[in-house]
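Sample 3 of the quickstart, ligand zinc ion:
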Amino acid sequence: MRVIEPQKQAVTAVKPRRRLSYRVIAAVAVAIVVGFLLWPRTVASPDLSVSEPESVVPIATEDAAQEQVDRILSDSEFRQLYNNIRQPNTTPIENPPSITGSDAADRHIIELAELRGYKLRSEASGALSPVDGVRLQSDAAAAWLDMKRAAAQDGISLRLTSGFRSVADQLTIFRSRLNATGATTQNIAEGYADNDLNSVMDRAAPPGYSRHHSGYAIDMLCPGTVFERFGESRCSEWLTNDNYQNARQYGFIPSYPDDTNNQGPLPEAWEYIWVGTELTAVEPQP
Ligand SMILES: [Zn+2]
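Result:
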């Protein structure tokens, strides 16, 4: 509900005026309280969880599904969608593994990570489908193949380079990058290695914090364009045009839409996540 702030009295208006009686003030206060209690609560419907279908806009027809894909989403709405959906066939990660073997150093790494916007994610808990050299949740794998085919029909060659990554895989990646900096456990714990940690976390999530754990995130490559410049490629243009219309048509949304920051790593234009076409229309949280 919107709160209307009383306008400030202009300082120059100092003419004597009659004081409001306490009765008037009391009546106004009662009116405000009653108004608040009677105000319809329908505006708040922020639950995006997949397991509670009543909060998800039902799709009756293909036209309705298309309407949802067509709805314009702001960058922050994409971000809210990403962070708030609960993904089927995944389990929330509650106890990520130790990175350094030292509680103090691990604690400091996680503090820094969360300051940057990294969040504990969910890990795939069921069978995954092998597709194009990686593994994905089966819905995401099927959607990927459909999207790749549609892109090819438009003369765009999309290639899949990464899908599911386990917490153990991520631990190996993170440790090896951290070791390469030469930072000692003691320096990490005492806050003397923050630059090293941040340079690692520009590109790699701590174990438990990667979007790839779910099996729904994909990294793509556009042949002829180096990995880091995916955002400038024809592939990216095809995916992002018209509020990500082509990506959303197959249930994918960008992991790192423009104009959002504090999401963990530096923005990665090559990463998308499958949420399904129904969810692209769910009202994100304010
Ligand atoms: Zn990625």
